[in-house]
Amino acid sequence: MAIKKLDSIFKPKRIALIGVSNNPESVGGITLRNLVGGGYNGVVYPVNPKREAVFGIPCYPDVKSLPKVPDLAVIMTAAKLVPTLVRQCGEAGINGIIIMSAGFKEAGEDGKKLEAQVKEEKSKFPDMRIIGPNCLGILVPGLSMNVSFANGMPEKGHVAFISQSGALCTSVLDWAYESHIGFSYFVSIGNSMDVNFGDLIDYFGQDPNTKSIVLYVESLSHARTFMSAARAFSREKPIIVYKSGRFPESAAAAASHTGALASEDSIYDAVFRRAGLARVYDFGNIFDFTDLVGRRRIPKGNRLAIVTNAGGPGVMATDSLISWGGKLVKLSESTMQKLNEYLPPFWSHGNPVDVLGDATPERFAEATKIVLEDEKVDAVLVLLTPQAMTAPTETAEAIAEMAKKTSKTIMTGWLGGASMREGIQVFNKAGLSSYPTPEQAIRAFMTLSHYAENQEMLYETPKEVPLSFEYDRNLLREKYLKEVFPKAKILNEDDSKMLINDYGIDTTHPTPAATDDEAVKISEKKGYPVVMKIYSPDITHKSDVGGVALNIKDEEMVRATFRNMVKTAAEKRPDAKIDGVTIQRMVDNKDAEEIILGIKKDPEFGTVMLVGMGGTSAELFKDKRLEFPPLNEQLARQMLQSLKIYPLLEGYRGAPAKNIDKLVEVLIRMSYLAADYPEIKELDINPLIVTPNDVIALDARIVVDEEVLATPVKEYSHLILRPYPESLITTKELKDGSPVTLRPIKPEDEPMWLDLLASCSKESIYHRFRYDFYFDSHEVATQFCFIDYDREIAIVAEVEQEGKKHIVGVGRLIADPDVEVMEYAILITDAWQKKELGYIITEYCMKVAKIRGVTKLVAETTRDNKPMISVFRKLNFKIRFNEDSTVSVKKELNGESE
């Protein structure tokens, strides 16, 4: 397993340092000193053919001469030597490598060629994994293992930190050491030639000692691996990301540093949002946020109370909180009564709770305790300013002692200079976050709150939107690939609208006219008023050349507009071939809003969808939202709700509400189109008119990806997320002849899934989960219905009774990160047992696993689950009865026929 192979890097018993020298200030010298002097219990082998010993430690000429095979080799030589050294390591049986050497793709074309040589050598050894090149190294505090040239070792903790910048790593380490923040792992990945963010998220996600993951990203490769890994673990462990190179100028700088091209920031934003990550935009937020999650004081919501000894800082914190969308809690009557009884009469009588400038440590602590006991409060920010009667250190000690008795989040701000330092150290040692300004505390708190909100929104149960298509989509695809797409790189408006219309999105149909006589004839047939547009395969933006005319009401206007439009277009674009104009019916856009809807293929992240404010001002105002197909009802609706113009769609200041449900359906239909056609490079519908009744595409443009058209790609390889596997829907018959539909589960199934479990006996639930499983909550249901079809799939058995659909069974396959082994589990409601449904579902799940390339199925049940053991026996699983009354089964899928 590729992920488990990372053990050789993060849990090595023997480490070879290749290229180490006697210079104590060199990369090799510092790394050797860090390992030998830092408490690492394993064996370290210096390797250098020019040295007999380094710092008194015997040195070996090459890896072949080492007394035992190391788990990990660290290469720190000149870049040109690295390909040969990687080959030698592979031949010696070394599976883990860290390449600290620089001079690869970040250094230009010669470096790219050198890195390609390293990849070629690595490809000869399937079990080898490489971190780097151009990296600082790794630190594993739990093993006292500092395999880097960074000074010092952070404390043991629960945060895994992964960075593309070595320089940033040293800054974070310095801060963490002073702030007493601990890490489970600390990794500089450099160019991430082999091991990437996705691999490390998978590895650390399975580590029980890692509670959260922090990423510093300059660019992402292996986008689908990243998305799959992040989605798999972000619900259980907060993943925080800072993305540098957000704008074109800084993106160019990032590319020169890492050797990778940067995609536009809005696409990265969509990636992080869809993966359920928390994104920070200020570098300082990395420290603030890491501090908060590193101390495992994570608030459950965004309702904050503030306790302070001065009004000013409380107001500053409140301003920052409101600007970030937080909630200043209105304290309960009971809390107010307790505070009135305890505090002096002149306290603020509200939130923020001003305990006054003469507050003693006891007053501070007791007021904070009273506020924390309020059920409405998710977290408390305690602010202290130095005043004549203030005792900062003693107050910090009182707050730290009180904090031991609560699980709620406490943040502190000891505002000032030297007199505050001792108190801040008290908080650091007590595991409480402390910030130099109220604003920094609020930013950290709200970033975590937004993360929680995003998680909740991501897993809201969507409504079922039944979609039907007039044509078979497979036959339709054959037609367009054969007859339409080869016509031109940019399809004309008619062909573009035809495809959109075939997917159920209403359009106005333009008809070409080569002369003014033809234009008149077509206009009269369609009925005035009409719209005239220039007809040219070379002109994409028609408005720029005077190529769009609206509300043409009679023959005279048609002829005059035709002549002027053709003449103007020819003058502005003399290179363009002009075939005349197109005529289409004029749509009454009274009480309508203009939307832009489109898809674009990004070189790294594949096809992305866009919706936003439309019309000629779309690029000016940039009111837009990006998402990745596939979309469901909830995701489509969230895209619209995020737009600034959404109130206009709802009906603003007496204007009638627009048909938002129809617009949601159009977005979902567009996501089907995006998934079905990797051959589309760009598709724009602008404007898409939304009225109280209709949603109509007035203009459309499709740019064909000629490379994909000429060389077909693997199905759905252009998508960062695997769509709903429609191909796995099938119908079977039970032994009594009744039909049952087998299909993958989807988020919309949550109500039926809950009904399924409610209809099961305690025995059936125990056989499936092997404990008293509490299922009746949305949070639990999302874990089973909202799944990543890349590494998990559940096949439900659906029947229809009295016109209503029910799920009566579900077989679930969960893969390891490498999708080589799948764990299988099955649940069938009691009323549908003993009808061979278990056999049918299990046999079909075996087929699904084989389609995915899985080599082995494993499962566990209990000895008293005799019907399921019988099913496994019929399907030739190997069965082992364990001493603890459990039964383990496995099935090798290699070489079996379908």
UniProtKB/TrEMBL annotation:
InterPro entries: Acyl-CoA_Synth/Transferase, Acyl_CoA_acyltransferase, ATP-grasp, ATP_grasp_subdomain_1, CoA-bd, GNAT_dom, Ligase_CoA_dom, NAD(P)-bd_dom_sf. The keyword Ligase applies. Residues 740-894 form the N-acetyltransferase domain. PROSITE patterns: ATP_GRASP, GNAT. Keywords: ATP-binding, Ligase, Nucleotide-binding, Transferase. It comes from the Bacteria. Residues 497-533 form the ATP-grasp domain. Gene3D superfamilies: 3.40.630.30, ATP-grasp fold, A domain (3.30.1490.20), ATP-grasp fold, B domain (3.30.470.20), NAD(P)-binding Rossmann-like Domain (3.40.50.720), Succinyl-CoA synthetase domains (3.40.50.261). The keyword Ligase applies. One of its GO terms (molecular function) is acyltransferase activity, transferring groups other than amino-acyl groups. In the N-terminal section; belongs to the acetate CoA ligase alpha subunit family. This is Acetyltransferase. It comes from Tangfeifania diversioriginum.
